[in-house]
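Sanity check record (used in CI):
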Amino acid sequence: MKSVFARLASDFLSAIVFLVIYLITDNVVLATSVAIAGAIAQVIYARVKGRELNYMTYASLALVVVLGAITLLTNDPRFMLAKPAIAHFAIGLIMLKRGWMLRYMPPIVVETVPEYVTAAGYAWAVLMFVIGVGVIAVASTGDLKLWAFYLTVVAGGAKILAFAVQYVVLRLIVTSRRRAAARA
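Expected output for Intracellular septation protein:
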């Protein structure tokens, strides 16, 4: 679990840096420039350390550079604010792969209720798309405080709630099926 949070922090580091610097300085050019430099530095650091970089890392770098350049040209932070939406859409697309979630489940769940795990995987994809649309809607306002609130409280809270509901539902279904199998 710790590695998942570390990966998420790494993936969203440029957005976090952009937000912090922009909130402190109210300077779009400075915040965007530092975010772009930070994203490039992340990739260089990983390469120097010999870490293998995946497609998502390069896609994230490309998004930061392209959206950052548009932000610099227009002096409009909304383009940088839209980056997390693109990430959510990409993750949602990946989650549309049938059975993607099975490898993350304990064997007892996979053996007992694989069809529910597959359905949960599709539900997660829908959640990512909904959050992505919300990010775009909030980013289009240009209100950084609302955007930060949406990403941390609303989007983060929705994911935590979805995880908790999934855990409880799968646990109840597995327990029910195992009891029924023991009686039979």
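The chain has two domains: 1-75, 76-183. If this sentence no longer matches the regenerated tokens, the check is flagged for review.
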